[in-house]
Amino acid sequence: HKVDLVINGHNHVYERTDAILGGTVKKALPAGATHYPADGGVVYATAGAAGRSLYSFPVPDSYEGHVSPLDSVATYHWAKGGGKITETVGWSRARYTGYSFLRVDVTPARAGCTTTLKVTALAESGAQLDHFTIERTAGKH
């Protein structure tokens, strides 16, 4: 379906993944990286830290200027029907538990030209927490 970026907000934190394809990290995306989804993978961002009752992570925050690299993060998800399933994931690239929001600047393009999404996570203070760019050759309309 040519999905390049998924933004959700259920959890009250900021978290961003590496590029994921079929449940596996396809490409590591450090802050400032440019991703070409035609090579595979979707980037997922949770941008839910603009409201009350912020959540915590069981691992350190990791963001621009305060990187805490980890090979994996212990986490869990809820199975259909309500069962809690624990797992270890290797895709958690950026994490921030303070108040923040996400800005996405879109540069559309005509067919055959490059279109971009410039994604920036900003703290409540305005400080940049994370940024990356997604580029794709625009298709025919």
Low-confidence regions: none
Q: Major beta sheet, specifics?
A: 4 strands, mixed
- Biggest sheet: strands side by side, in what order? 1-6-2-9
Strand segment count: 12
Mean pLDDT: 92
Alpha-carbon distance between the termini?
Answer: 15 Å
Topology as a string of helices (H) and strands (E)? EEEEEEEEEEEE
| Relative strand content | over 45%
Radius of gyration: 16 Å
3D structure, described in words:
With 141 residues, this protein is an all-beta fold. It is 0% helix and 48% strand. The chain has no helices and 12 strands. A hairpin with a 2-residue loop joins strand 3 (19-21) and strand 4 (24-27).
Summarize the structure.
With 141 residues, the chain is an all-beta fold. It contains no helices and 12 strands.
What's the helix and strand layout?
Blueprint: E1 5-8, E2 14-17, E3 19-21, E4 24-27, E5 34-35, E6 43-47, E7 73-78, E8 84-89, E9 92-96, E10 100-107, E11 114-123, E12 128-137
Parallel strand pairs: 1-6, 5-12
Antiparallel strand pairs: 2-6, 2-9, 3-4, 7-8, 10-11, 11-12
